[in-house]
Amino acid sequence: MKDKVRKGEIDWFITLVPMGVILFLAGLFFVFSEQSNAVIGQVRFFFGDTLGSYYLIIGLGIFILSLYLAFSRYGDIVLGSPDEKPKYSFFAWGSMMFTCGLAADILFYSFSEWVMYATNPHIAELGSVIDWAGVFPLFHWSLIPWAFYLVLAVAFGFMLHVRKRNRQKYSEACRPLLGKHTEGWGGRIIDLLAVFALLAGTATTFSVATPLMATAIGGLLGIELDRVLVTIAILVVTCIVYTYSLLHGMRGISILANLCMYLFFGLLAAVFLFGGQTKFILEVGVQSMGKMMNHFIELSTFTDPLRTSNFPQDWTIYYWAYWMVWCVASPFFIGQISRGRTVRQTILGGYVFGVGSTLVSFIVLGNYSMGLQMREMADFIAYYEQTGDLYGMIIEMVQTLPMAKLALVWLLATMIAFYATSFDSIALIASCYSYRRLEEGQQPHKLIELMWCILLIVLPVALLFSESSMSNIQSVSIIAAFPIAMVILLIMASFLKDAKAYLEETGRKRESM
């Protein structure tokens, strides 16, 4: 009976409109690949170049807000009943949070990002490669990105576990300000923007990193494969894995997240201990951390007004947009699993586990290959400049490790685990979006979950077939993030208003007792 009730509560407008648009866009990318790529590039220039400061201001503002929430009176609010305890241990909670928020992109960029910066004119403006190429990966993947996740996670956790609201949508988080308009056209537009942003984020993630897995398989077999076809096969296999996990509920997601973390930290430990660059990794890591913290405000507000390198337009603005579109699913999931934790514990714990694990990945994997470059044991910069093939370059890096074949297998397994863990949580949140209401403890119908699991790979497949450049793949996130950033600001204003009212309510209750 419960399943029938849930089927009747499906919000077909929010479910079918995004599905139709995504299938339409996928068709355009497939049939008119050159023209669609050109249009995307032009639209990206307008949002990322002309209006780029918008993204930078919001990013820094959200980070400052996260600190305010953690250390103000709002930090004492429990995401649940006042005396409730966390459902998950810190490691299980942190594992699910970390893996749902980053996907396999972290491995792709941990290996390759310093090389892309080393070839950028902005690094030459600042100084040397060894001084700055390792700083920007830490900056672009740490405090501000996780601030986006964590401030929204506490807003959604408050909405779900304190206010007990049963509409698991972006618009519901805006109810304190929207009021009766939440279920009108204002709320509908917000929810449509959220679903489109969700699909844009998943398209960017799948399109950027999955070709690395195809290249790794080619490296293992010692033959050159059709990268596009193999990548699509990998997308299908990954879809099967995360669909299987999701259909087994939160227990399946938790088990997969723990497995992913063991594989991930096992890979980092092997590179750190046996790669022969341990001292270089540590010393450059400490130096890069110091530079990042020392120049944090400067890096957060650099706009390159004369466009001598276009560095913030190509990188910082793209990254802030990327985190914004991922903010549709990841914070909702983090909010769900943070029941029983205080706002302070959620934010600071997220920074410790999420940011800490991210920094370790970039310091170990990035500085390993940089150490080989600086000691002239390899020339990855020349490889990239001559071929433009980041995927082949990463495989070259992995093949310098002892027992390279095993390292490639380990890398593949870790990437599949990352993707599966990220996308089963995303498919779960997207499935919840398909319902007008979903009571606490209820799960979406299995067919709705299956539909979203499949839909999440449609646009990435189209982008791969259209052979979109890295720039155009990034553009999908930049375009989708522009309106969703306004919604994020609206959600945070709503949370502050509602949390203030809640503190006043509980204060009056304590006084009357």
In a few lines, what is going on in this structure?
The protein is mostly helical and 513 residues long. It has helices at 2-8, 12-31, 33-50, 52-71, 90-102, 105-118, 121-126, 129-132, 135-140, 143-162, 170-173, 175-178, 185-221, 227-246, 249-274, 278-294, 296-301, 311-326, 330-337, 343-374, 380-387, 390-398, 404-433, 446-455, 458-465, 470-512. The chain is globular.
**Helix and strand element order:** HHHHHHHHHHHHHHHHHHHHHHHHHH
User: What number of domains?
Assistant: 1
* End-to-end distance: 42 Å
The dominant shape is globular
Count the E strands. 0
C-alpha Rg, in Å? 22 Å
Subcellular location: Cell membrane
GO cellular component, one term: plasma membrane
InterPro entries: BCCT_transptr (IPR000060)
Main location: membrane
How would you characterize this protein structure?
This protein has 513 residues and is mainly α. The protein has a single domain, classed as Amino acid/polyamine transporter I (Up-down Bundle). Helix content is 79%, strand content 0%. The chain has 26 helices and no strands. Helix 6 packs across helix 20. It is globular. The N terminus is likely disordered.
